[in-house]
Automatic annotation (TrEMBL), chain A:
Keywords: Antiviral defense. The keyword Heme does not apply. Pfam families: Cas_Cas5d. The gene is cas5e. One of its GO terms (molecular function) is RNA binding. This is Type I-E CRISPR-associated protein Cas5/CasD.
TrEMBL record, chain B:
It comes from Brachybacterium vulturis. It holds the Pfam family CRISPR_assoc. InterPro entries: CRISPR-assoc_prot_Cse3 (IPR010179). This is Type I-E CRISPR-associated protein Cas6/Cse3/CasE.
Length: 234, 228
């Protein structure tokens, strides 16, 4: 019986890079495995060069509760002391996004240990980038069951404002690790080493769950078009 | 086969903005959804754009089947291909005495007699009162009447709301690119309830439109259940 630890990623800004190179610091539209594993490692107080294979082996899934919007931060920096050329950096963030991340392991004690360290993290926790501090209600509970099932049964965490803009019944997308033999979208976000002198990432396949999580939304809009309804129901 | 089509438009797309802001471009795009050998004299293509919060919905009524991809590709979403339905069952089901809610965007005008000229000068109706009277008086010749309801004082008044009154103004160009001056249309959106008084005449109204400015999104009457 596997167990699943849920994390609510709800900070005002988040940034989940997986293809960033040099001066374009992009963000994916949902959290990366490396970002979440790094957060867990920081909570446990592991150094950058410490081994993280046990954390990288955890199964990982994310539910998109509120997609948020893309924020572009254009920065310039000048070496005024030496008179070097100006550096231009583009950083991208997701603002106002809400995700529910699930890490699954057959070993419940491992997840309980992680929960303990998230209660009193050794290093500061942040959502993908150091300038995006984690929210206070980051830590949800450890549930029995596999990641996708737990994500399906958990309540919807979107803001009331966002709920009002959505239909009365909707499906939240769930992105999970591919099962053996399954073909998904390849991503290089499995951390092999966070060592600052040589960070390395491995590949995994990401699959969008066919069903997703269906939620009811009493605050939502009635989307039916009365004029078209009249034509097709005549 | 008379068809009723509904297409969701994307204002974030360059093509979507063009169609939503330029009635002449929209007219051309809607026309190109239909075969080019369509007989324009004996049939009519009607369209209207409804803005509900952030949604922009394009309704099209035409005399034959439609290929909505022409509009969807330049101004819609690939995952929302446009919904098309046969209009005939609804038209055939109409009977005298039927009551429906309706919406209409129209160009209410009247013609002032001009001395010495064969045709009068067309001037728009400006106030909501004038526009309401225009539709109430026009209705019987189009096979329906506006239902009445009692206001606070117990007086009977037409069950009709006039909103989104606006002026449209854009350059008219002929196919050879020569500007032929400016087109100005004063439009108003009517919402209310009606009762069918002449079913054949009313079918004609639904299929061929009401009032002027039909090429520019005016004149299409859409029906819905009352209270639905």
């Amino acid at each position: 019986m596997s167990a699943t630890l849920l994390l609510l990623l709800k900070g005002p800004m988040q940034s989940w890079g997986h293809t960033s190179r040099y001066r374009d610091r992009t963000t994916a539209s949902y959290p990366t495995k490396s970002g979440v594993v790094g957060l867990l490692a920081a909570a446990e107080g592991r150094r950058r060069s410490a081994p993280i294979e046990d954390l990288a082996r955890l199964r990982f899934a994310v539910r998109v509760d509120q997609p948020g919007s893309l924020l572009h931060d254009y920065q310039t920096a000048q070496r005024w002391q030496t008179g070097g050329s100006t550096s231009l950096v583009s950083r991208y963030y997701l603002s106002d996004a809400v995700f529910l991340a699930a890490v699954e392991s057959p070993d419940r004690e491992l997840l309980d240990g992680i929960t303990q360290s998230l209660h009193s993290p050794r290093f500061p926790l942040f959502l993908g980038r150091r300038s995006c501090p984690a929210n206070a209600d980051l830590l949800q509970e450890v549930h029995d069951g596999d990641a996708v099932d737990v994500l399906r049964s958990e309540r919807w965490f979107a803001s009331e404002f966002h709920r009002r803009t959505r239909p009365q019944q909707l499906t939240l997308p769930i992105f999970r690790d591919a099962l053996p033999g399954e073909i998904g979208d390849p991503r290089q976000d499995v951390p092999l080493s966070f060592d600052q002198t040589h960070r390395r990432y491995g590949w995994r396949d990401v699959v969008q769950d066919a069903e997703g999580a269906t939620v009811e939304n009493p605050l939502g809009k009635r989307k039916a078009d009365p004029f078209f309804e009249e034509v097709i129901s005549a | 086969m008379t068809t009723f089509t509904r297409i969701l438009l994307n204002p974030q797309k360059r093509g979507g903005r063009k169609l939503l802001t330029n009635p002449q471009a929209m007219h051309a795009a809607v026309r190109s959804c239909f075969p080019s050998d369509l007989d324009d004299a004996s049939s009519r293509i009607l369209w209207r754009v409804d803005r509900n919060d952030h949604d922009h919905v394009l309704y099209i009524v035409g005399p034959v089947g439609i290929d909505p991809t022409v509009v969807v590709e330049q101004a819609g979403w690939p995952s929302r291909p446009g919904e098309s339905a046969d209009y005939r069952p609804l038209l055939d089901s109409l009977r005298v005495g039927h009551e429906r809610a309706f919406r209409l965007t129209a160009n209410p005008v009247r013609s002032l007699p001009a001395d010495g000229a064969k045709r009068g000068r067309v001037v728009p109706h400006v106030t909501p009162e004038q526009q309401t009277r225009w539709l109430v008086e026009k209705a019987p010749r189009h096979g329906f009447e506006i239902r009445t309801c009692a206001d606070e004082n117990g007086d009977e008044r037409p069950d009709l709301l006039v909103d989104r009154r606006s002026d449209m103004s854009f350059d008219h160009r002929d196919p050879h690119g020569e500007s032929r001056g400016r087109v100005t249309l004063r439009t108003a959106r009517f919402e209310g309830t009606l009762r069918v008084t002449d079913a054949d005449l009313f079918r004609e109204t639904l299929a061929r439109g009401l009032g002027r400015g039909k090429a520019y999104g005016c004149g299409l009457v859409t029906l819905a259940r009352i209270g639905g």
